[in-house]
Design goal:
The complex is a heterodimer of chains A (about 290) and B (about 575). With about 290 residues, chain A is mostly helical. Helix content of chain A is about 70%, strand content about 0%. The two termini of chain A are about 40 Å apart. In chain B, the strands form six sheets. Chain B has a six-stranded mixed sheet with strand order 14-18-13-17-15-16, sandwiched between helices. A five-stranded mixed sheet of chain B has the order 8-9-10-1-11, sandwiched between helices. The chains are: A mainly alpha (about 290), B alpha+beta (about 575).
Amino acid sequence: MTDVMMPDQQELVPAGRDAWRMFLRNRAAVAGLIMFFGILFMTFFGPMLYDEDPNDIVARPFLEPGTEGAPAMGTDYLGRDVLAGVINGGSTTLTVAAIAAVMIVAIGVTIGALAGFYGGTVDTVLMRFTEFFQVLPALLFAMVVVTLFEPSARTISIAIGLVLWPSLARLTRAEFLRLRNLEFVKAARAIGSTDLRIISRVIFPNALPPLIVSTTLVMGAAILFEAGLAFLGLGDPNTLSWGLMIGLNRGNFLNAWWTVTFPGLAIFITVLSFSLIGDGLQDAFNPKLRGR
Amino acid sequence: MYGRPIHRLLAMLFALSLVAAACGGDDDGDDAEATETEDTTEATEAESEDTSDTTAAGSDEGDAGAVDGEPVAGGTLLIGSTQVPRHLNGTVQSGYATAVPGTQLNASPLLFDENFEPQPYLAESWEIADDGLSVTLNLVEGAVFHDGEPITSEDVAFSIITARDNHPFATMFAPVTGVDTPDPQTAVINLSQPHPAILLAMSPGLLPIIPKHIFDDGQDMKTHPRNSEDFVGSGPFKLVEFNPDSIIRMERFEDFFIPDRPYLDEIIIEITPDPTNIVLGLENGTTDLSASLGGSANILRLQDNPDVVTTADGHEAIGPIQWLEFNVADPVLSSKEVRQAIADAVDRDFLADTIDQGTTFPTPTGIAPASPFHNHDVETDEADLDKAKQLLADAGFADGEIELTIDYIPGTAQSAYAEYVVQALEDIGINTELSVSPDFPTWAERVSGGNYQMTINNVWNWGDPVIGVHRTYLSDNRVGVIWTNNTGYENADVDQILAEAGQEIDADARTKLYADFQDIVAEDVPIHFLTTPPFWQAYGPKVQNPPIGIWGHMAPMHEVWLAQ
């Protein structure tokens, strides 16, 4: 069976080229994209360009940037190079955020789609389940999960995924509720499409734009969560990350500002870039703004 | 365009708040300082015992704030502390948290001078029998408890027996078979064997004299309600307010048995989980004296402040030692060559001089350098990576074959030591991972249960080796409790030597025995000794006669006064 392309479907989502054009017209979004690619470049190519092991003790502890013998961003309490830490710490932070985002999308979209598509009892049960997670204090719950199982990148990713999916589930449900009774869905049903096909091939593509925007923002939230857990001493000490750097050095801020400021700035820029990109995507996917 | 400014603003606020939080931060711990428990407020008090400031170092020297003139009575001493006491009864509870207020509230039979020599306190004189099997205490006349009841030999006997039967340091009074009380001012302590540690065990922090008429009511002493409510003590200050999470307020006891003492009207201990608050309090003059300073960064910061006196003097009896402990029951670490190789790779001089920036001192033995029993000639290897690799090869291990884990007390400066060990062992081809415990009890359970390979630890000598040293090495002291023999180390010669040293009255002979003991342990390497952190304290310039004796803050502050 071939896909049924409905006119309505075309109306709902701006064409890819249009969306891209809209995105590029948003200067803040482009700046966010540049920042994000900058972070990606630093994370994946930085270690080749700056070949310093972030775990090596390279100088005296607490050397301030600019002092003799100090690396560009100074040294931490063990005499490790903060710049090497910032360059190498991004991969863990981004990986944790990416895994968490995949979990959030997988759980949130599945539950939201089923609830929105079927409605009725299924909706009621799944939404009560969602609300249960929604009312849990997110950081506290994540702390409990990480504490019960030893802190590792995997545990932290799972903990973040577990606490951040409900909002995406509710958004997905709302989109499915809105779309499920539109003509093109009825048409798909009329030609005998299965529920699975309607959900995955007919409704889901049309629900995608707000989900992409939301997922982008959730990535930023996941990074902050990872940093927050590490700040509270629940990071994986065997895996360098920006959050861990802040967590390990936070007690030295009064005396060695550079040990937390630079990884903090890295987090700030990354989260900001996700937010700006998310905003840009939201505008780009908004049909009301097309042609402006 | 709906929502965009809000999103942006929120994102910026989140990120900024994170940075700001990091900035303001301080911590409960990672920063360096505390060892076992100084900042680990949930830890038990026996834990707190070993809570020294791990880092410490050079000082502005102690009497920099001294002023000329006669002591002046009056004033309130504000002490900043991170230590949360469980209660105030030091006969059943070890630890700094209890001892600091406890020694103000209760008197003990003896005080000790800077040479570890006993001085009169509640006991105006004392005598050890020639055979070493009894000690007679002659108590001062006219001493009374805070409720006005006289302090008698019955109270001394009750306190000693209570401590013998309940205190975590079982070796302190273990040989005591009973206490005779021929008259109200005389107590005769009977011993099953000579026990040279008995006098030091009667220090303020170890044997507070508590009122028998209050406590001898058949209740469990460890949970007795009067341990913290309506507390009746025998010391220079009496309790006014006890809120262990925030404040302990004590005021001068007018009928204290030493005339015209204490000088101070009041002592207030302000308890905060964050040593940075104490640092800030010292800087702005709202804290007079620190009872815990945090890590080297705080110390170095205060050393630069002309209005604050910092000193490493005092607390010599505590003898904290930070060490790398091996589980010798572990298949890999049961090899002495492997342990020696690790010891050769982990450089204690580097830790003291570089990581701690001179705020700690390297020590090669388990008896602290300030102790009269420290062996200054113990043979120990210098850091030598080639030798370490050779030892591993001799033991049959290829490069990269050994994988180990290292534990540390969470929330303390020990994480830095553990991180250093990981790096140091990588240099000799041993892959090491940090093993994280979420809290102190988890760490304690792992280590005391033998479920670890290596751990950084910080253990106190507590004055006499019988009290604080023997417990780590005696083969029959594997009792599943933290700070006992948690390594699984067994050496019959060590058992024999410690048994003899614990009873040896002759000081020279005893010193020789402990020297031999330290040599054997240095050879066997169940523990790689790293550094000893002086017990740093800081105080404002108006604090005179600061508590810098061998027990530091764990001694009465009846001689402390405030310059006007």
